Amino acid sequence: MAQLALRPSVNAALVMQEFAKGPLGEQDPGALVDEISDGIRKMHDGDMSVAEAMLLAQAQALQSMFMNLARRAARQDRPEHMEALLRMALKSQNQCRMTLETLATVKNPPIVIARQANINNGGQQQVNNGTAAAGDAATTAKAVKPRTCTRAAKNQTRQIELLEVSHEQRLDAGTTGAAGGADPHLAALEAGHRAAHRGRQGRGRP
User: Fold this and answer.
1) Looking at residue 150, what is its pLDDT?
2) Which run of H or E residues covers position 113?
3) pLDDT for 10-27, tens place per residue?
4) How far apart are CA 99 and CA 78, in angstroms?
5) How far is CA 122 from the centre of its chain?
6) DSSP string, 135-156
7) Buried b / exposed e across 43-61, counting CB within 10 Å, b at 16+?
8) At what angle do helices 79-107 and 49-74 cross, to 10 degrees?
9) Torsions phi, psi for 184 (to 5 deg)
C-alpha cells in the first residue's frame, strides 16, 4: 500500500478521477494507471511525444480560456467587472505563451558547450572540466573577472615601484640630479648661479 501511495501514476490517476467525474463520468483508476504508466515508459525510452502532445493541448486550452474571458470583458458595462475579466484573460494568455516556450525547449533543447576553466589559487592550479549551457558563459566571465583585475593591480604596483627605485635607492625630489646622458657637458646649476631675484622674471605670473 505504501508503494502504491507513492507511485506517481497512482497519484495522478486519483486526481484525474476526482476532476473528471463531471464531463467524462466515473473513471476506472486501474485503466488510468495503465495509461499514465505507458506514457512514463515512453518518456524513459526517449520518446517525448506524450509530453509534447500534452503541452500543445494545454496551450490550446489556455488560448480558448483567454478568448472566452476577453469576449466576456468586452460585454461588461461596469469598469471593475471589465478589469477583473481582462486580468484573468491576460493571465491565461501569459500561461499559454509560457507553455509554448516550454514546448519549444522540449523540441529543441539548448546547445551544450564544453568548457575548461584553469584557476590558480595561491600557487595551486585547479583545472575544472565540464559542460555548460550557453547561458553559463556570463557566469564564467564573472568568475574570472576578479582575478584579471587583481593581476592588473599587481602590474600597476610593480610599475610604480620601478619608477620610484633607481640603483636600489628611492628618488629624492629635493636632491639635484646628475646630468643626463643626452649632453654630458651640461650640469645642474649651483645655488649661487641661479637668478637672485626670481620675482622680476615673469612678474604677474603665479
Assistant:
1) 55
2) strand 112-121
3) 999 989 888 877 777 788
4) 32
5) 28
6) GGHHHHHHHHHHHHHHHHHHHH
7) eeeeeeebeeeebeebbee
8) 160
9) -70, -15
